[in-house]
Amino acid sequence: MKNIKTRFAPSPTGLLHIGSIRTALYSWLFSRHNQGEFILRIEDTDLERSTEKNIQMIIDTMNWLGLNWDKGPFYQTTRFERYNDIIKQMLKAGTAYRCYCSKRRLEEIRKQQILSNKKPRYDGYCRDKTINYNLEESFVVRFRNPKKGSVVFNDKIHGMIKFLNQELDDLIICRSDGFPTYNFCVVIDDWDMEITHVIRGEEHINNTPRQINILKALNAPLPEYAHVPLVFDDGGKKLSKRYNSTNIMQYRDDGFLPQAILNHLVRLGWSHGNQEIFSIDEMKKYFTLDCINKSSCSFNFNKLLWLNHFYINNLPTEEVATHLKWYLQRQNIDFNNGPKLIELIHLLGHRCKTLKEIAESCHYFYKDFDEFNDSVKKYLNNTSSEYLKVIKDELNMINDWTVKNIMEAITNSTIKLKINIGKIGMPLRIAITGVYKSPSLDVTIYAIGKSRTIFRIEKALTYIKENIE
Ligand code: GLU
């Protein structure tokens, strides 16, 4: 069997949204499953709307998600010579022709067709003319689409799809400014790059018969086609319209792990039994096109959160730490002076759904705070001052700073004070963290370290003395 070759061919005219990335993932997985090749092709022929920034965003997103490509990125803008050569050949062979119809004429026939309830399409006026036009006159090049018969292809997801040739226009393949058109470039690229499987969004189904006809006219082999259904948001709206989903990198900035995104995306429209959690290796192992659903599917933000929480706690901690490191650096959080990131993930991972939440809750491990905010002040009073003095002494006596010894020091303090642990817990937590939510006290105190803990209790005592007494 021929070596499988797939491609992801985004147009850099906007941000990459979930639907496009899901297409990229399916295309990538299909090549990986079959030990084939995966190509990245940037379809930048729309010179006005394509930007460098969008191209960089595509590359960054693919890299971040680990969707590596074997060849490319290829840029269509570097291939104009090749496209124009083929257009010349087609004109010579008669599979394409020059069309000199003016805009006004085209508008006129369009109007007439609409009035008589016909589908607006080019009427073939220049198709069989052999007039010697003035070479100065502007023209487009149209593909000579067969008039009779039909185009049938067996879509790997939708099954047999048939279009009648009489429904198809003589497509413009080169515009009057000399630039080849999108549908034409795609055909030449897929041919030259020997793509065996075109996996792309469902919105391209209507392009496929046109592209097949051009390939046939060129005697080029036909690839297989798989058109993946659209992705909707929870409310059934098309995803690309929504702000937070138009930019996949927004999820990185919101503290999601690539693994969680990929797991959610792979399950949007593809299944393997009832399995919900897939490692990348499992995705590669199980992915086939026949298990993709025909119907569209919905992106579910809560499910993504659930998966992210799962992966924060179940991926190798070193891997999560790499992402967390990037995240904390970006937030200017200096994490060198405190618990190691691996320790931090063990401390906070089970209570956080995103890296953002970890970043927001980890400050007290690394940085002293100068003030108590209003919501916690009520826990700092004369009674708690008495408790804090006792616990400070107990903690100070610890020589071997272990979680067990810290717990023992807390218990000893409650015995000395003849109170239960509930009374001492909150003031102590506020004194050392400044907030009233943290992992359990013993591990928190352990991670903060002895000198810092004592220093902070002293600071709380001074605060009470200066503000309460
Ligand atoms: N460039 C097209 C897009 O971004 C994809 C074309 C294709 O996959 O054939 O929608």
- Kindly, what is the distance between the CA atoms of the first and last residues, rounded to a whole number of angstroms? 85 Å
CATH architecture group name of the largest domain? 3-Layer(aba) Sandwich
The chain-level structural class is mainly alpha
How many structural domains can be distinguished in the coordinates? 5
User: Biggest sheet, in brief?
Assistant: 3 strands, parallel
The value of Rg in angstroms is 32 Å
EC number: 6.1.1.17
Domain Glutamyl/glutaminyl-tRNA synthetase class Ib catalytic: 4-306
GO biological process, one term: glutamyl-tRNA aminoacylation
Subcellular location: Cytoplasm
Chain-wise SSE layout:
Elements: E1 5-8, H1 18-33, E2 37-42, H2 52-65, E3 71-75, H3 80-93, E4 96-99, H4 103-115, E5 140-143, E6 150-155, E7 159-164, E8 172-174, H5 182-192, E9 197-201, H6 207-217, E10 224-228, E11 231-232, H7 243-246, H8 249-253, H9 258-267, H10 280-286, E12 297-298, H11 301-314, H12 317-330, H13 341-348, H14 355-361, H15 363-366, H16 374-377, H17 382-396, H18 403-417, H19 421-433, H20 441-448, H21 450-467
Helix pairs in contact: 1-10, 5-6, 9-11, 12-13, 12-14, 17-18, 17-19, 17-21, 18-20, 19-21
Catalytic activity: tRNA(Glu) + L-glutamate + ATP = L-glutamyl-tRNA(Glu) + AMP + diphosphate
Protein name: Glutamate--tRNA ligase
InterPro entries: aa-tRNA-synth_I_cd-bd, aa-tRNA-synth_I_codon-bd_sub2, aa_tRNA-synth_I_cd-bd_sf, Glu-tRNA-ligase_bac/mito, Glu/Gln-tRNA-synth, Glu/Gln-tRNA-synth_Ib_cat-dom, GluQ/Sye, GluRS_core
